[in-house]
């Protein structure tokens, strides 16, 4: 680990207490965080060591992407909650979040509420929640949050909603006994509370 390079040991006890094999450093963001060591004849274990290194690299990248996705979702939840409840927030933080989602403070939007029937049997709830998020994805909308226990709040540009209204209609028709959908009046993103109310 100190050397920061792959070390191949061809004979047992080449160094005190060593066995033949290979040691490969694992790097993450330019720093060595671990070493994978596999004992055995170097020619035989080398390919497994490099395979383990690649798999570890993939797992670390997946974990980083999951973490970034969770951070983005938390950020959206916070911003949408502040907008619909008229809570104060840092304007730079708000502007950055809106910009990441293709919006600005002056964008004309509507708030869409998808509310689930709380009396509905929760066995199929995951399937219905998945259908809701898939409908939002079909509309190319990621600016939404889930309000526990039964409400989705989507802030969508006026024009995008008009072009994709049929997707919401199909969702409402498919799950008419399970959910209802409400669409607020047109307002700027900053006046989201007026559209939500």
UniProtKB/TrEMBL annotation:
Pfam families according to UniProt: Diacid_rec
InterPro entries: Diacid_rec
Source organism, top-level taxon: Bacteria
Putative sugar diacid recognition domain sequence ranges: 2-80
Protein name per Swiss-Prot or TrEMBL: Sugar diacid recognition domain-containing protein
Source organism (scientific name): Lachnospira intestinalis
């Amino acid at each position: 680990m100190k050397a920061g390079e792959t070390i191949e040991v061809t004979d047992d006890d080449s160094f005190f207490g060593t066995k033949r094999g290979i040691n490969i450093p694992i790097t993450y963001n330019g720093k060595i965080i671990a070493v994978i060591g596999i004992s055995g004849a170097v020619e035989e274990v080398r390919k497994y060591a490099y395979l383990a290194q690649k798999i570890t690299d993939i797992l670390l990248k997946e974990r980083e992407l999951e973490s970034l996705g969770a951070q983005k979702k938390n950020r959206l939840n916070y911003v949408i909650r502040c907008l619909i409840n008229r809570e104060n927030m840092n304007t730079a933080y708000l502007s950055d979040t809106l910009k990441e989602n293709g919006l600005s403070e002056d964008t004309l939007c509507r708030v869409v509420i998808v509310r689930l029937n709380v009396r509905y049997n929760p066995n199929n709830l995951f399937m219905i929640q998945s259908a809701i998020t898939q409908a939002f994805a079909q509309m190319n909308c990621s600016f939404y949050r889930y309000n526990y226990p039964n409400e989705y709040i989507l802030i969508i540009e006026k024009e995008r909603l008009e072009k994709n209204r049929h997707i919401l209609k199909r969702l409402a028709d498919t799950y008419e006994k399970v959910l209802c959908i409400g669409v607020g009046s047109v307002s700027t993103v900053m006046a989201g509370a007026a559209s939500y109310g």
